[in-house]
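Protocol step 4 of 6: record predicted structures for both targets in the notebook before any analysis. Target 1:
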Amino acid sequence: MRIPAHSVCTAIRDDIVTGVHGRGSRLTEELLARRYGVSRVPVREALRTLEAEGFVVTRRHAGACVAEPTRREAADLLETRALLEPLGASRAARRRTDAHLKVLRGLVRLGQERAGRGTVDELRSLGGWFHETLARAADSPSLTALLTQLRHKIAWMYVVEAPVGPVEHWAEHAAIADAVARGDAERARALMTRHIERSAPGYRLRFAAGGAATERVRNTQHSVNTASPLR
C-alpha cells in the first residue's frame, strides 16, 4: 500500500493495535518503508513517536520492536482512564461548543436507536466516537491527546466485550451528554465515573502471564484486575 508520509505513524500504530505487528516483533525501517510505500525517513520519525507513546521499544542488537507491556502496565491504563475521563467530562460541561453538543446528541440518538438491533462493532464504534467527541469538547489539547493515546493503548491491550445491557449503556451516555449540555460539571464528572466503573467487567486482557489466553478485568480500581476502544 502507499500512504502519505505524515500518516505513517498512524498506519504503523493501527497495525500494532490490530495485531498485524505482533508483540515483540521487530520493526525494520526497510520493510516498513516498503509496506507503506514511503521512504525510510518518515518511518524513522514514526518509530520515534511510537516509542515515546509506549508502542515501540529499542533493543540492543535488535533495533525497534513492538513493546510487550506487562499486566501491571495494562492495569495502569484503565486506572489512568478512570481519573482522566471524568475530568474530561467535567471540563466539557464548562467548555463545550454548540457543535460539540450537536455531535454528542446525534451519537446518543444513533446509539439508542441501534442499542437493541445494532451489531457489536457498530455500537462499539459509536461509543468510541462519543468518548472522542467528549474529549475534544474539553477544549484541552494536552488532555485530549492523553485520552486519545489511552484509547489506542487500551484497544491494543484489551478485548472489549459488548455491554450486557446496551440500552442502559446508552442511557448512561445520554445522561452524560445531558449534564454537559446543562453545564453541570460535577454531575458530568460523577456520571462518567460511574459509567467507567460499570463498563469495567467488559474488558479482558489480550494476554496473560506468558502470553496465554485473555483475562477478564474485574475492577478498575485494583492493580491488575482493573476507558478502542473506549465505550
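Target 2:
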Amino acid sequence: MRRIRGGVSRLRLPRTRRGQRRAYQAVVAATVLALAPATWLNATAGPRVRTVADAPAAPVAIVFGAGLWDGKPSPYLAHRLDAAAALYRRGTVRAVLVTGDNSRHDYDEPDAMRGYLLHHGVPARKIVNDYAGFDTWDSCSRARRIFGVHRAVLVSQGFHIRRALALCTAAGIDSYGVGVAATRDVTWAYGGVREIFAAGKAAADALLRPDPQFLGPREKGVTEALR
C-alpha cells in the first residue's frame, strides 16, 4: 500500500508475516529472472573462452568495435586489435573482420580499426570491414549472412566475450572467443554492469534471431581475403 503525505508517495511494507513473506518471494523471483540471462551466457559460452596462445585455428577473427578517441581506437579497442594482430601473426587466423559503427560520416570505427591493424603488420588484403556492426547481434548476424563466416575466433574484453559467443553461435557461427584483459577502471566497471542488462536483449536476440538493422547484399570480402 501507499500513503500520501505532503504530496509524496511512500511505499509501505506489509505488516503481516504472510505479506512480508510474499514480498520477499516476489523480490527473489524478480532477482532470479533478472539474472537468468547472464547465468545462461556464462553457462553456455564460458567453456569457449580462450587466450591468444590456446585459441583454436579458424579462418577468421572477428573484432567488435569499442569506441574511438579523436578518430583513433580507444584503449579498449586497441587491446582487442592487438590480440587480433597476434592471432594473425601466430597463424591462428588467416583474415580479420573488423565490425563497428559507421552510421554517420564523422564516425568510422571499421576504418580506424583497419588503420590500426595495418600499422601492426596485418596486410590490407587480409582485413575486411563491416560498416554496419551497430551492436553485437548485428555484427554476428551480418558476419554469417553477409560475409559468409561459418567459423571464427571472436575478440573482445572478458566482460563482453561471452555475450558475443552466445550471439554468434545463435547466428550460425562455430566460434571460440579470446577474452582480452582490461584495466579495472571506470570503463571496466561500467562494462560489467552493462552486461547484466544487455544479457536480457541477447537472450531475446538468440531466441528470435531478428534481421540486423541493415542487411544489404552478400559481400565477397572474407572469401577473397582467404584466397
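Step 5 preliminary note on target 2. DSSP finds seven helices and ten strands in the chain. The longest strand covers residues 151-157.
Proceed to step 6 after PI sign-off.
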